[in-house]
Amino acid sequence: MANLFSSKPKVLSRTRGLWAEAAFQKTLSISALAILVLLTAIFLSLLIHSSPSLKAFGLTFFFSQTWDPVSSRFGALVFFVGTLLTSFLALLICLPFSLAISIFIGEYFREGILSSILKQVTELLAGIPSVIYGFWGLFVLVPIVRDLEIKLGILPHGVGILAASLILSVMVIPYAASISREVIALVPSDIKEAGYSLGATRQEVVTKIILPYAGSGIMAGTLLALGRALGETMAVTMVIGNSNILPHSIFSPGNTMASVIANEFTEATGRLYLSSLIEIGLLLFLVALTINFIGRYIIKKVSIRA
Amino acid sequence: MGKHLVAIFLSFILMPWSALAVAKQVELVGAGATFPYPLYSKMFYSYWKTTGIKVNYQPIGSGGGIRQLTNLTVDFGGSDAFMSDEALAKAQAKILHIPICLGAVVLTYNLPGNPEIKCTPNVVADIFLGKIRRWNDKRIEEINPGIKFPKIDIMVIHRSDGSGTTFVFTDYLAKVSKEWDGKVGSGKAVNWPVGLGAKGNTGVTGLIKHLPGTVGYTELGYALLNRMPAALLMNKHGRFITPSTASVTRAAAVPLPNDTRLTITNADAPDGYPLGGFTWVLVYREQAYKKRSMEKATELVKLLWWMTHEAQRYTEPLHYGQLPEQAREKAEKIIKSIIYDGEPILQ
Predict the structure, then answer these.
(1) Which of A79, B254, B287, B302 could form a disulfide with B297 if both were Cys (CB 3.0 to 4.6 A apart)?
(2) Could you name the CATH architecture of B109-276?
């Protein structure tokens, strides 16, 4: 019996197991730390490279509408407004659709072929490369918007804030819908059953019990989808009109932060020009980060309650 | 199993380097302007076929090409705009500009029936300044008798990305219009007073084709490829010139400075098309830097000589303007001035 416990190979494998455990743990913690380091490094390098423009323009950078590479005067207001306008408009347009999809899959048809097909299709939307959305927007959506503008008697650009928001809304639906669906599925069934036992119809249960309960979670999901909309570049630049003039209506052409960086970075000569573009990158980074933090904070609150 | 995977993975990572080590053949690396890329890839392909020398050119934009050259990561850079005196002074060594070919920029538009229209410099400038707002403006109708213009708004399309094409176009406008020069100026990207931006030549042509009433500028080749109309432009001698590779070559037949750094927009050539420019290859005059071999430097010089001579036959079929005689002579002198450790490479 005794040599069973003291057999050499077993002891070896035991120490080997311990060693592997330690190595595994080390690898995990290093990888996790690396992400943190990476994020900080990105922030710092953005900050360092944008310092010439930070010094030259200071706070006026955020309020100036001029973007003039020839005379080296740069301001980010047009792009900042363009980004926020298209993103929030996209969110507004996408909300009814993503909500309907998530209620449908999360409450009405949780199982079955129909719901799994719908689930797959929505997730497929997220996998389509953005340049394809851009082409579709340019060839299909822009002429439709143009016809609308002709009917309304506005200068028919076709491209502009509205076209960009419409494209973005299609692109963010899968993100908003999948999180909303999970939050809706999290609503405890005893509350819902209590509703039904009081004689509530299905519609009443959805509007009076599920939506109020899952409301903040749905909002958080939509906020995370907003993060995606903020950074979208290719599809937006193809349909927004790329005009560096402050938009005065949703039909005007505009420009976004991501789009101006993608457009002008390759040929940006001159230190101030380059660092101004990087400062826009920094601004975009901060905006996206802030919105993500708010979204995660709300989700955390909700999951504690659920 | 795990070890095998690691070995396979490592061999994938190391493959490019090991391949380089095996093939001792000189490979030249360049980067820069996207505009001459179709021509360069044709040239370099046939150069590889005849000489076995591989030339790898990355079309990352003129600005990027200059940056790569100053960072010493490429053998040569490509640029549609010449480097300023200030930029040249900042470089660690003397940089030479060697003209390779010419590009023409055309004014293209989308009108019902797409008639061939004529434009004067003032009209072009005022359209892009937003002062002429409708197609049936008197000033447009005056120079185009017999054409019935629709009563629709002019929609200006410009490039949204920084580009040599924009540089040529705005350089022209700044030369012909004082107001443009004062308000906007010239550069690879400018603060456009009116209009919509589109990315790349393809973006501009795409938008113009889809939106009636638009006008914009694009490279000659793209307009021809897309069967789009191109306006005749009035040159300095008061003649309306059809844009073509031949007419832009005629425009470049003007006295050039010895370093060939000159824009040829609105040039003083009687039959020259006023909207065009050189595209250059940039190299260091002293080739012995960063442990480069004499062999590599010699191959580079040979390549440049070939590009400015035999390879000129590839220009016309791809809608680029050939170098005029004077420009080629200047290019020869510049190529001969390239040295390795103080000694000229080409005698």
Answers:
(1) B287
(2) 3-Layer(aba) Sandwich (3.40)
